[in-house]
Design goal:
Blueprint (H helix, E strand, L loop, with lengths): L4 E9 L4 E9 L4 H8 L1 H4 L10 E3 L2 E3 L10 E4 L7 H17 L18
Length: 117
Amino acid sequence: MTAVPIHIEVLYALPDVQSLIQVQVTEGATVEAAIRASGVLESFPEIDLATNKVGVFSKLVKLNERVRDKDRVEIYRPLIADPKEVRRKRAEEGKVTKKGGGEAAPGPSAAVDKTEA
């Protein structure tokens, strides 16, 4: 039986550089095999497949998942900060800004005298 070649892309992005590598693997190849065949691990030695998460078209997958023709395999960098912590800090800063916004502008008095003379 002849191995059928399939074409996929392997993507790895840094803040200032994006690497999109087209690679041909045989049908039935795994995500890990596709990543290794692309040569991206040699170009970016900081990638550690034991810790970096991977996905196909923005959906997390395991390294032993099989790739299909025209898949885009993505290697994700670890998060620098916890998203929950960042949102919490941003919300706290917003509260300080609202509280320290200055004095209220003078306007009509809330107390109204409705007595007739």
